[in-house]
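Hi, here's the filled form for the chain we discussed.

Project: internal
Contact: R.S.
Residues: 176
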Amino acid sequence: MELLFSPNGRIDQPTYWRGVLILFGISAALTVLSAYVSPFLGFASILFIWPWIAVHAKRFHDAGKTGWLTLAMVVLAIIVSFVAQAILTPLFGVDVTAMQREMEENMADYMSSNDPGAAMAYAMQESKRMAQVQLLPSILSTGLVTGVVGFVMGLFKTDPNDNQYGPGPGGSASAF
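And the returned structure, exactly as it came back:
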């Protein structure tokens, strides 16, 4: 569990990829659950920001670099995510703007009926429908971001010697 919760120490490439695949699987599962069970489950993904940071910081440490470079990976991930969503969503025939406009118009009708329960039920139903039609583009986008960031992280080679972050390969720092 230290792999996912502590940014201290070092991890080699195979351990890094194990952590990334675990976190990607959790992210994909949360995306599916939020689309079919409750949109609020998507907020649980916030809890997984720290494990992503911890895994990347330790990988930077293994290359003898500061874990603060993880912030650059966050910026890269945000940029790739926006570009991927902008390209993938329309490719799958999803018009998010039209769906949002329709939802706003219908919400205005529900709100004018003075039935907040019906308005809330409609909002939940429509949020799930929007998440469902965006599900495949979302998961593909997350996979693309994971691949691009993983490729960049692969450019950082292991420092074979002990460094300020822990012992080199063969030491006990890369234990899962």
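Let me know if anything looks off before we file it.
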